[in-house]
Write a structure and sequence with these properties.
Length: 408
């Protein structure tokens, strides 16, 4: 099914990559993202889990700082105004496994200088854990992370979790709340009540915001998640379990739960990918590339993308149902001189390095020829208009470039 011209030209408010990353807004300002905060919460969980004891006070702040550190690459946005360059820099050298030992050593050296400690090697290992956790939690998404910089600029992406994963965020947060609630047994009842009220409010706000964003989130699913978190919160109070558990114990269970969740996501991704491959074979599509990308907000929901010479097929999957939920075809515009002219631009080449599933469209507006490249990885399933990270080239009738760049 091909998009008509009205759908192609329909504008949507740009969500910067669906990643909620720190980056250029319409006014060029920068802001930290929910994604960065999730990295910090995950780092705090790991730091508490590996902490050796009350005297080991460096573990928590060092692992937490290291788990946030890779996103300092976004500070380049203060000095670089070109949004395409910003895109090329993000998830680069600070997210590199090759550079990880260097950054870990530097962060450990800073910790030794601040605290006066001499166990540099141990602190280097802790910093490495935080950096590795950040890189892992970026790798599991579909955005792409240049883990081999500066040896290679290939963007690795495992495609097993959505860029903003509420389940993952809950897994890394709740164990720390439980540990805080039972840290002082005499105040446990009061703290559990406050946490329960806060979780309930967060659940209601999440349901409202997600549904307003056009993503269907079942109220029963939210209620089920709240019940699970409530059970985890109240269970340690049963039969005096909390007297036998330390903060590190709760956080180690949290780290183990995160590992189990990522394993489940990997298994679901493998099932979804096989479904996409089977559909492509049954339809006899001339496949250039294909992928199964996680869709919010459940392990069961996936988007299959199949790139062909003529365009891109998008299949919405529910793993609990054999039949696809929907099938759309995004046809590339037929080749013409203006499309060919745009392909010669170095900026377009750089954009296509980033875009895994580029959809090419052409239209004429008066004397102006408009060519747009959209990466369908970031187009919402409910939206048939403009995708985030849309690159537009404007040419005059003679083929001279009037402007080019990512849309704000």
């Amino acid at each position: 099914m091909q998009l008509d011209s009205a759908a192609v030209t329909q504008a949507m408010r740009r969500v910067r990559g669906l990643e909620w990353q720190c980056g250029p807004a319409g006014d060029g300002s920068d802001r930290f993202s929910l994604d960065t905060f999730t990295h910090g919460i995950a780092g705090a969980l790991l730091g508490k889990a590996v902490r050796g004891g009350p005297g080991d006070r460096a573990a928590l702040p060092l692992v937490t700082v290291a788990s946030v550190f890779p996103d300092t690459d976004m500070l380049a946005n203060l000095f670089v105004t070109d949004s395409l360059v910003q895109l090329e820099l993000h998830r680069g050298i600070t997210h590199s496994l090759v550079a990880l030992p260097v950054f870990a050593a530097l962060l450990a050296g800073g910790a030794c200088w601040i605290t006066g400690r001499r166990d540099w090697w141990r602190l280097t290992g802790m910093a490495g854990l935080g950096l590795g956790l950040h890189i892992l939690l970026d790798l599991v998404t579909s955005f792409g992370t240049m883990i081999w910089t500066p040896l290679s600029n290939v963007r690795a992406a495992w495609d097993i979790t959505f860029i903003i994963d509420l389940t993952l965020s809950s897994i890394v947060l709740v164990p720390q709340l439980v540990a805080w609630a039972y840290k002082e047994p005499e105040r446990a009842a009061s703290r559990r009540g406050k946490i329960s009220a806060g979780i309930a409010l967060m659940g209601a706000a999440t349901w409202i915001l997600v549904n307003r964003a056009g993503v269907e989130l079942s109220i029963y699913g939210v209620a089920g998640g709240l019940l699970v978190m409530g059970a985890v919160l109240w269970l340690p109070g049963w039969n005096g379990i909390h007297h036998r558990c330390r903060t590190a114990d709760y956080c180690r269970w949290g780290v183990a739960s995160l590992a189990v969740y990522l394993i489940l996501c990997t298994a679901a991704h493998n099932v979804a990918l096989r479904r996409v491959q089977q559909i492509a074979e049954q339809q006899q599509w001339e496949t250039i590339d294909l992928a199964a990308l996680p869709a919010p907000v459940s392990l069961w929901h996936w988007s299959g993308l199949v790139r062909t010479p003529d365009g891109i097929y998008r299949v919405q999957l529910d793993l609990s149902d054999e039949a696809p939920r929907s099938l759309e075809f995004f046809a590339n515009s037929p080749p013409n001189a203006y499309l060919e002219e745009s392909r010669q631009l170095s900026e377009v080449e750089r954009y296509l390095w980033f875009a895994r599933f580029p959809w090419l469209t052409y239209r004429q507006e008066g004397e102006t020829h408009v060519i747009e490249y959209r990466d369908l990885r970031f187009a919402r399933p409910s939206n048939r208009g403009e995708a985030p990270f849309t690159f537009r080239v404007l040419l005059d009738h003679q083929g001279t470039v009037l402007s080019s760049g990512l849309l704000p």
